[in-house]
Protein 1
Amino acid sequence: MGKRRVKFNKRALLFSRSFVIGTVLFTLGLISLLTGHIAADLHWSQFRAGFRPKKVKREKIDIWKSAYSHLYYGCSDRGPNFNHAVPENESNGYLLIATSGGLNQQRIGISDAVVVARILNATLVVPELDHHSFWKDDSEFGSIFDVDHFTSSLSKDIKVVGRIPYKVMRSMEKLPWTMRPPRKSNPEFYTQQALPILKRRRVLQLTKFDYRLSNKLDDELQKLRCRANFHALRFVPQIQNLGMKLVHKMRSMSSKYIAVHLRFEPDMLAFSGCYYGGGEKERIELGEIRKRWATLPDPSEEEERSRAKCPLTPHELGLLLKSLGFQNTSFLYIASGEIYGGEKTLLPLRELFPNLYTKEMLLEEKELKSFVNYSSRLAALDFVVCDESDVFVANNNGNMAKVLAGRRRYMGHRRTIRPNAKKLGTLFKARDKMDRSVFSAKVRAVQRVFWGEPSEMRPGRGDFHEFPSSCICKNTLLETNGEIK
């Protein structure tokens, strides 16, 4: 019995030790398993965090001036390998240009014509302005632009003459060949299609010349485009001086001013196909004007708004400026022709910004007498005031907006605001359903990349006349000194 009890105690002791050791090992294994998962999860979360985009604190925007404008400048000088213009008697012939549209549409056409003349190695005859468009302005080139400056400024690039020499006209067996190039034609079209005709006939006329040259050219030709647009096309003293008088009057009242290209004329509203709440009277009036463009489809307001083709109303523009942070004491210059609905349409904007002026308010009737029947000359006055403004606001992305936006970028990225019409349209519809501060915050958010900042410039983006990337340089000296953030 004693021997059996001893064996039993030994077995019990052995079992209890095994149980304890097993329990300890199990517990340690469980702890190891759990801590291993925790460590792995911690490591994985840290790993993922490394690839998660870091939150960048947005800098507060100066509504009057870009913080980086001084770091960029226009650069359109001729390169060392860009050959001088050939003499008139060695060129391939004479190029006649018939422009199309309003003042700024014609300005784009003239700038492109200079480049086409260079591509064709042709002598450019001073372009003929459009006398048959909607605006019925019979101004000649020399009534708006300084012909002598245009000719001399481009003398190293192309030869410009006032007219085809008489002896050349007498020697021609047939009238000049006329052709309308396809929109945004590349240089190969001109060298392969137009050049053989020019060489054979000695004189070639290109008609409806607006947007007839591609956005994509080599840098030297793009720089020539900039030299033509930003330097060679200078207004005659009568226009420039009166425009600067308007600028001085605005500056005498305030050190800063905003220029708004309202673009709320009857023709613009009719062309857009949008409806602005004027009832049957508005539909009939604008519908009649719209008939002048036979190729336009039947208007669809919702579709046009979704495509951002509807200009903002004066009231909506006022709400935009107020939401962006402009005080009601700010001074506004309204660049516009006849405003549809007149003073009644303008009143909501005036109530938001009482310091509102037009050229008709700032000038005496006798000063405008030689301008009133010429829409292009009136538009040129507005162009000067908008160009000189601290802030330029474009209501739609038309030709004046594009040309001025490009010019202001070229001249140092002066503050230029273009409404984000697609997003703003939705916000304005829902405005009554949200608090004013919430509405303003949402407006600022959708306008974040529509301030005319240098960062908005990307090679190949949009129309070259609006985004002249080949002609804008960065000051590398300031960059190396750490001034570019």
Protein 2
Amino acid sequence: MGEEFYNTFYKAFTSESSETSIVTPKTITKAINDNIKHDNFYGTYSKPPKLENIEDYTWWKERFLNWTKAYAHESWFCLEFGYNRPINDKHEEIHLNDLSDEDKRKFSFEQKMIALIQQSITDDILFVSS
């Protein structure tokens, strides 16, 4: 009997492979939950890290500031240095329509930062703090 040829890649890339992992709804759910936890902890390009427990505030604050510096730096300037809406001679805030383009931009960035903070804090913590 001659030397036999064994193809080690036979069935390696088909559904008939003997070493396929069994995917169940439970394993899919666990993977999705792990990804959501990761995204909430570190944030993504489109959403900041989420504060889920008040005990994690110190860690969250650092991650949130780093995220805003990277993805919403104009809004971070408003948080860091403040923004005061211009006032007129009567010490009243100038109406939004009458603001200069630069003041409209700064106002918009401030409003975005407020929205980012509200988005990144769970409702139960947000309502307790207000």
Protein 3
Amino acid sequence: MMETATAKAPLLVRVQEIEGRGRALIATQSLKAGQILLQETPLLQYSQSNPIIQNTNPNTNPNNSNTKTPVTFCAHCFRSLPSSSSPSSYPSCPSCIQPPLFCTFDCYSKAQATSHTQWLCKSLSILDSHSVDPETQTQARFLLASYNLAIVSPASFQLLLLLQGDGIVDSQAHMLHSFMASVMAFWPVQGQLPGFSPELTASLLAKDKQNAFGLMAPVQQHGEREVRAYAIYAQASFFNHDCLPNACRKDSYVQLMNCKVCNSISFRFEYVDKPGDHNTDIIIRALHDITEGSEICLSYFPVNWPYSERQKRLLEDYGFPCKCDRCRIEETWSDKDSMDEEDVVSENEMEEEETEMQEADENRENTNDTNDDFPHAYFFVKYLCPVDNCGGTMAPLPPASGNLSTIMECNMCGYLRTDDEFT
């Protein structure tokens, strides 16, 4: 849980009810390609496991690439703690069975008032003493963070309750509610957490499933990317899904280094390891120009997923089938066609489709129409990262002094490409 959630650019988007789609975020003015639409601090955030035992670093042993070594990170801000430093050099919680570490005394002080209160500390110790499966461990950490939020920031807890997600009181909800009641028996809950019940537990679990964003650990030398923690944002949670989105998430920090792509600059992504007080803020950036009044959509997963996988994920995790322009076309394809759709962006075909793609670009700018027979051919060529096994989305760098950038940047791996390469 962080300090009071704030949106950095609230005037660029607003929440509006759209028939058939529910609440959505709408552009309040014309937006430029690459423009940052929203930067927001989490309502709450939580680790998916104990910060001192989570494994994320691949072992460098070339004979065993699957072996991993423990990575320690700050229990409050989730930044990595250098393995070269002794754990005793960091502040730690003396009350925990497995004491979490904090990157600085300032972070520890903030945690004591927010994300690691004395009652939460004791509950986490009890949780760590139980042998539970990883999914239950993560759900329990979310519930503890939510109930803690109700005490330290009742207004933020009310915002959490307003988010999308109506849970079903099933056996899992009953089990977790009983478990929470046992590990929270000593909490100052009485009178501060009204409605503590299996129904509230089920509702919170649904809101977590439908609204949580993963906070990524830095990319390792073998290219692995893993979720280190999760965060829920009051405003960003209202971004609806589209399989051909007009915006993407870019919440990673970049450092300048020599560029091998455009002989200019390149970036190294640090994700939660970026410095400053807002390392877990979410940042949303426009892929292309967006007209005033248009809905702004993200893709809830990599855009190169095939039709069947996209539909399965949306139904299981979000409770709806996608009926976007792309899905209406792909639902008529065979399974083989769906699995082979990434072939659209192969290097051998890019030259053959170049003229067609440029014409599609002009038509799209003139008509803002995505109802072409094959709309994602254009999208894949321009906006899908060409790096093998990345699946990231290319977006222009933010405009500088009113001038649009000619450099596209992948939101996952940091790969850069100039407009010259595309055109």
Protein 4
Amino acid sequence: VPDAGFTRGGIKHECLQGTREVVISEIMNWAGEENNQRICWLSGPAGFGKSAIMQTVAERLNGEGSLAASFFFLRGAGARSEFTRFIVTLAYHISYSIPDSQPFIHDALRMDPTLLSQSMKTQLQKLVIDPLGHILPRAKQMIIVVDALDECDDHKSIADFIGLLVQPYNDLPFQFLLASRAENHIAEAFALDAAQSITCFLKLESFNSRQDITVFLTSRFDTICKQRPRLFQDMQEKWPSSDDLMALAKKSDGLFIFAATVVSFITDGKGSPQEKLKQVLTSHVGLDPLYTQVLSNANRDEAFSKVLTAIIYLREEISITSLAKVLDMTPEAVVNRLTEIQSIIRIPADNQGSVQLNHTSFRDFLLAKTQSKNYYLLLGDASMASWSLALMVNSLKQDHWPKDKAEEYACQQWCFHLEGAIRGYQSGEVATGILEIVQRFTRCEALEVWINTVIRDVKTNTTMECLQEIKKLCQV
């Protein structure tokens, strides 16, 4: 997966210089010591800055020459949210960080061309453990960094992976630094007796971060005031005041993403920064009220709801141009709606870039009815399936391949959205509506193009499994 390592493009959260030094020092001390704890698990709630810490640590380890490989999972980012190519990506990174391992990894793949489709245990053994075993006497202790285990869609594989790591391998020349929320499938894997003695447990919520958040807020506001002087030209004194900064830090309650989102919301140019600061200071604590505030200020017309649904339910990142085509809108109309919530998302510099959420907690918020209430996104997969099917029916022509990324996305993902839609339905009446467009699709020339595209892209097995699951769900 080319965009999964610490050098990836797109959003990369990093710690502001001088912040999070206590927890980073503990991690670096663990990495530099010779002990029996070959795993370090950094856990913490959403928004506490785990990914920023992992990015910063990965860069430091790389600078010291002790980073073997890295993988940053990300929900909704295609291959970065899947386990399928995780092990082989680690092996690829290792082949470059430890050049002596290259011939052994290449030999393993050459001797067994089916290796990439074999079990996780076999891949880990033949692509990582065995190659490094051959060079063990010449290799120094190296670290493999894996962030956001909880954002991998395959919970069972993640639990099994942790189970493999705690097996009694002897003298491995690498350690694993892992980070995630303490989700049940992960916490249960680390609760096993085998994991207890070889794991260094670091709970991020145990570290006091209020001073770091105050430093972060001061730096961000100072930078924005200098970059956008017209927005703050009428202010007579230093803004925000020290008392306001302390109040914001207290309200953040350890959530760095809250602090970052507050700065973006207050300074997005849509309204008076002073008034917006007052709104934040008088609101309840936490991300949910802040997300609610941003959405309540947006012009929530039908097109806005359409765009918001798409960026939350997309199964992989696609460009603004492609997104617009899937939604049957213009790129300009999509960007116009996105600017309504620009303080909690990243809008690309041009239409060839993809929209990214500042933090996955925004997706969690919109998909949890008890949290988002009136903003709850109902039947998003149904909408995505309908839009994808409509695009194929209207655009795919016999004897022609899909001509752009939008059509490819529709071909590759419509059935997975349909499966999600059927799972989420509360009534057969709604299910009948979505199946009408499926029937249109099966009776037009787009069907043959789709079948050929699935075969060309070697997606036959996963697509057939999805269709069989849909059939099973419809029979219940």
